[in-house]
User: What shape does this take?
Amino acid sequence: MNNFENIFQTRRSIVDNVALNRFLTKMYSIVALAILVSAATAYTILHFFANQFFNALSQNHALSFVLLILPFALIIGTSFSKNPILSFVLLMLTAMVYGLTFSIICLAFTQTSITAAFLSSSAVFITMAFIGTTTKKDLSNLGSYASAALIGLIVATIINMFLRNPMVTYIFSYIAVVIFTILTAWDAQKMKNIFIQNHDEIATTSLAIIGALTLYLDFINLFIQFLQIFGFSDNRR
Assistant: This one.
């Protein structure tokens, strides 16, 4: 009986590892696709439809408000949708809207700063996602501290919007990079643990999309902060 149980547990472990690897591959593939959609959307707007897009923004101020609010609605829809196909579509729409927003933001920065920010955020994201996925150390406490720090940073950032101190913004960008670096590792580990503990009871594709959304937002925030850092350096020259 003991040999039978050992064989059964070994086979179960192999099956679980295969399922986990499939889940992680699916989740990170969706993250990569979302990032690609955002980049492709921004590139397309800037190189082919810049005049039409920016004329529409200047003539219709409500459109700017829609671009600001729409991502939040799409994120909520993606998070609460129980239909994996709908969740995937909403996530891709979210990526497209962020791409439209980045086409506006990127006008304020040089190509060098944009490239440096993208490469830096990609390197940090890949490294921390790998660490979060593979480490055996529990990152829950570290993630909780980072989440609390993020709330404080958001409040301080809102205050600085009225003060308009560029040096404070520059310092906050470094702090935000540290926060989202930690959150990336924590979110990667969290999604892995959720799958391991509940994969027999939940829809794998739906969970992969939710994890992809979370990690995509981590990447976007890293990119924005690095863009602020490299853009500030350009302005100082």
